[in-house]
Amino acid sequence: MKLSGMSNQHLLFSAVKPLLLTIRKSAFTILLLFLIAGEILPQRRMEDKKALLKRAAMNLPEVKSSPQDGAPGYCAPGSHSTTYESINSVKVKETFTGIEITVVVNITNPYGCVANNPCQSYDASPENINVWIDWDGDKTWGNRPDEYVIHEGMKGYAIGFDSHLMTLIKDVKVPADAKRPAWMRVNLGWGYDPTDPCQADWTYGDVKDYPILCGLNITEISAIGNIELKDVPKPLLSQKFDKDGKLTDPPVVNKPLAAAARKSEIKLNVKLQSFPDDKLGANSRTVCNYKITSQWKTYVEDVSEFKGKEGKLAIKLPGRIGKYNLELNFKFYGDNQNQVGSDIYILDLWVSYDDPKLSGIKKVWMDKAIEFTEGTMLSPDAEEKLAQEMMHGIYNKGGMRWSYGNAPIPWFRWYEIVEGKTEEADCKATSNVWMNLLKTLGVGGTSTVHHQGKIYGKGFLSKTNLVAYGGTKSARGNAFRSAEINSERWLFDSHTFGQKGTVYYDPVFDKSFKDFYFHVAWDIRTEFPGGYETGDPPPDQGPRVLATGESFELEDGRWKKYTYEFIFTPKIHPLIQSP
Description:
- By secondary structure, the chain is of the alpha+beta class.
- It has helices at residues 8-40, 49-57, 360-374, 382-389, 415-419, 427-441; strands spanning 79-81, 85-94, 98-107, 127-133, 148-154, 165-173, 182-190, 201-212, 215-224, 237-238, 252-253, 257-260, 265-275, 285-293, 298-307, 310-316, 322-333, 339-352, 401-402, 412-413, 503-506, 511-515, 521-522, 547-548, 564-566.
- A five-stranded mixed β-sheet has the order 1-8-7-4-5, with no helix packed on it. A five-stranded antiparallel β-sheet has the order 11-10-9-13-16, with no helix packed on it.
- Strand 14 (285-293) and strand 15 form a beta hairpin.
- It is elongated, with a radius of gyration of 40 Å.
- The termini are far apart.
């Protein structure tokens, strides 16, 4: 039977059209599934398909790793896509037993992850990390078993980590025959485990090569702007290393480091040597975490750093005199900012008033003077020993002894006045003791001491406050507060001075003051009995007393009030506090 207007071909097509449409839909479905499967092989869990589609929807440009970044002389790293995962950083830190390797992988927008929170779903395929280190330096990876150091599949994210980062930390033992430097290769792969260090390419991942076991060592530490110690050679630290970074001779450490309290900081110049010499340079970095401590507490804790093989560290000083430990905790970072070493040095730090120009004996005196300010005790034989040693120096034994009133015997230990262990001496002896202390501390000029009233147990630098006698709450010993200067400093009241008693130097504020009344001045006391001599002593006859000045009058039973005037423009150092 023939139907009008339709050929046999049309009739056949009409009959099979439903079947063709079904086949076409099925084919499209199969093709679509094939394309999706090809994109996500190996398959991830169903909930992660959205993540892949989200990746595709981002239309990120394809990024390929650069094979030019490879280690020189080794097989070239492969070419692969770093669009979705890449090596963010690799850090190597030397430890006591080997090295610690930290690999941080960056992943672009993983599904279900929020910054600083754990991810809700994870890939079935891990981020595969493989690491080789060429210990013997033969330009090959893995020719011996201990060169394949890490094979790890990283899964998931830790709580608190950035949602785009995974971190792997592994400890690796360094063989005894390891060459320095050694090259390290790190392979990253997703959907494939790149266990061949020389593989040409794979789809997703990254490759990085790094030189490790390079190092930086300190060869010299010297001080800039420190107090000159005549008998202490510079630098503070000196040491030599061979090409492999091993010490050739024991380090030379010259101590102590000394600084003036009126300065807010001291600078240390640090010189470094890299090994091998051509591996670390201008981009290397030295970070120093330092602490200044005493037996009681930590006074300063801060950090300073510089770039390159030589630089300066700024060390903040405590605002008081004393003897401290300066702990220098160094960390060295190479040109690629991997940590390549660390060192700790502890130096003695003495903070004094001024430049003491220390001789060998005066080093001991400075030490003792600092002990006075801290209120610590001297050994029983310290004064006698030092007196004998210094008999022919600028100090004399008589100046280090004193007698109360007119009694020439017994002699008392002069530091008992300072430590407040006894009643005050007479005015002359008190002045002598104070002047000797100032000489020891290197202060140009002297001060006066309030000695009226026999304040038993309250020494020059006693820690006990003398509020009842006019001292401020934070003042020590016999220190008074000046009415002319609205700040605390050491000010003493007496009618007896040293030879330069008309000039008072205030080391805290770096000011000099002049006594208005020019009262009696005593230089040093003679040892022989029979009174005092006046005038300039002949240089070959040893110490004599110099008595000058004019008379004075009492005011209401107290010594005359003193006024001070500036001799030069003061330099204010607000960071420095009085002891």
